[in-house]
TrEMBL record:
It is an enzyme of class 2 (transferase). It comes from Chitinophaga qingshengii. Residues 378-434 form the Aspartokinase ACT domain. Pfam families: AA_kinase, ACT_9. The keyword Transcription regulation does not apply. It comes from the Bacteria. Belongs to the aspartokinase family. Gene3D superfamilies: 3.30.70.260, Acetylglutamate kinase-like (3.40.1160.10), Aspartokinase, catalytic domain (1.20.120.1320). Pathway: Amino-acid biosynthesis; L-lysine biosynthesis via DAP pathway; (S)-tetrahydrodipicolinate from L-aspartate: step 1/4; Amino-acid biosynthesis; L-methionine biosynthesis via de novo pathway; L-homoserine from L-aspartate: step 1/3; Amino-acid biosynthesis; L-threonine biosynthesis; L-threonine from L-aspartate: step 1/5. Its EC number is 2.7.2.4. GO terms for molecular function: aspartate kinase activity. Keywords: Amino-acid biosynthesis, ATP-binding, Kinase, Nucleotide-binding, Transferase. This is Aspartokinase.
Length: 440
């Protein structure tokens, strides 16, 4: 069985949804198709939620109406026959009635998650109506019936495996299953999600749970490029990546993949393909356990980084100092991405503000604590990249004139990371594209 995930742009227009229907019926293999919300929908739902949280009900109402009218127009083109149109209308009525009801009740975090879930619920239901109109047999598997996270927001693969297995076994002989990406249930049984871009993660978790033959991530670009195409003019697709390389790129900001989406596939050794819905014949990128080639393959950038420097004369000759510092971050379940040390100071980075106040308070006794917001980690990723002698020279040459806040070299064989102030992100990606790949 294969898992095929289609992102927001891949289902964002009626004709794109029709193309997806063609792609998934091109062969007779059994598949689970994971869909995102139509492009723009989750952003719109975030805005609606934001308005409601600020008590701006009239504004929320306007935003809901605008979204509803988008869906009505979408469905006019998606389905043509009377039966299909009636089904689509009933689905839109139901979800927008829900959004209109929440205008009347008091806002809370659980409701926020319910609001955010509407996008994937709508896209999958409407897609099924369109499949039905085309005479294609498919079964909708509700993600809320099998996808779950624990109290620490970690996915529960063994539980997902059992629940999903049970659901699939109820439909013997069925070739096509459709489900929602992104949404799940949390430890309290409430509707929750896998964070923005989480449909990739859903696909990988589903792939792991069913031990799929392959996971395909269908998007709007022909695979992982060597640099961020939104920032740098000339980029090219990479044909092959190892799990380690892809995981580093995803974690360090390559938007094409959710940061955590590689580990489930890697853990169960399931190949992942990144493919382009707009250009299905393009090779895309294949991600397997095999390392391939040496040196820099791609550059990614992760924004919104906070650098924390702890300076203390007591660090001098004091063993156990780093452990005590790390324990603070462990206590608040806040991962550290980069770290550098000297005799009297340690600098490290985190990507979340969630427990910053508590962390800072607990770090105070260790020395002077300095904070820098709006930093960006730029990672150069590739097999044995840190052992490729020329790279570090090229990197420093290219970076001339751009202040480097931190550098992490040798921590992983696949990654060299630098920290720059966010204002230098674009420049850094551009000069490294020239310095490492000769592209301007
Ligand atoms: P989807 O909606 O299909 O999940 P995303 O917008 O999340 O698609 O991811 C695809 C986008 O990621 C591309 O359109 C591209 O602009 C962006 N992107 C950023 N870095 C890279 C990269 N290194 N390679 C390919 N795409 C990238
Ligand atoms: N719809 C969700 C988002 O926009 C999940 C996804 O597209 O992967 O973040
Ligand atoms: Mg995405």
């Amino acid at each position: 069985m294969k898992v095929l995930k289609f992102g927001g742009t891949s289902v964002g227009k009626p004709e794109r949804m029709h193309s997806v229907a063609q792609l998934i019926t091109a062969d007779n293999d059994q598949k689970i198709v994971v869909l995102s919300a139509l492009s723009g929908t989750t952003n719109a739902l975030v805005e609606i939620s934001q308005s409601l949280s600020e008590g701006k009900k009239a504004q929320a109402k306007q935003q809901i109406d605008k979204l509803e009218s988008h869906y009505r127009t979408f469905c006019d083109q998606l389905v043509k026959q009377e039966a299909g149109r009636a089904s689509a209308k009933a689905i839109i009525d139901e979800h927008f009635e829900f959004l209109n009801i929440i205008l009347k009740i008091s806002f809370n975090e659980a409701l926020n998650k319910d609001i955010l879930a509407q996008g994937e619920l709508l896209s999958t239901r409407l897609f099924c109506v369109s499949l039905e109109e085309a005479g294609i047999s498919a079964v909708l598997l509700p993600a809320l019936d099998f996808m779950s996270i624990d109290e620490y927001e970690e996915p529960e693969i063994p539980k997902i495996k059992i629940k999903l297995g049970n659901l699939i076994s109820q439909h013997k002989g069925e070739k096509l299953f459709i489900t929602q990406g992104y949404i799940c249930r949390n430890a309290r049984g409430e509707v929750d999600n896998l964070k923005r871009g989480g449909s990739d993660y859903s696909a990988s978790l589903i792939g792991a749970a069913i031990q799929a033959d392959e996971i395909q991530i269908w998007t709007d670009i022909d695979g992982m490029h060597n640099n961020d195409p939104r920032v740098v003019k000339k980029t090219f697709p990479i044909e092959q990546l190892s799990f380690d390389e892809a995981a580093e790129l995803a974690y360090f900001g390559a938007k094409i993949l959710h940061p955590a989406s590689i580990w489930p596939a890697q853990h169960f050794n399931i190949p992942v393909k990144l493919l382009n819905t707009m250009q299905p014949e393009a090779k895309g990128t294949i991600i397997t356990e095999l390392p391939n080639g040496n040196g820099a393959k791609a550059i990614a950038a992760k924004d919104g980084i906070i650098a924390i420097k702890i300076k203390s004369s007591r660090m001098l000759l004091a063993y156990g100092f780093l452990r005590k510092i790390f324990e603070v971050f462990e206590k608040y379940r806040t991962p550290i991405d980069m770290i550098t040390t000297s005799e009297v100071a340690v600098s490290l980075t985190i990507d979340s503000e969630a427990h910053l106040d508590q962390i800072l308070k607990e770090l105070q006794p260790f020395g002077t604590v300095e904070l820098d917001h709006h930093q960006t980690i730029v990672s150069i990723v590739g097999n044995e990249v840190a052992a490729t002698p020329s790279i570090i020279t090229k990197l420093f040459d290219a970076m001339e004139g751009i202040p480097l806040r931190m550098i992490s070299y040798g921590g992983s064989r696949h990654n060299i990371s630098i920290l720059v102030n966010g204002q230098f992100k674009e420049k850094t990606l551009q000069v490294l594209n020239k310095g490492l790949f000769g592209l301007e």
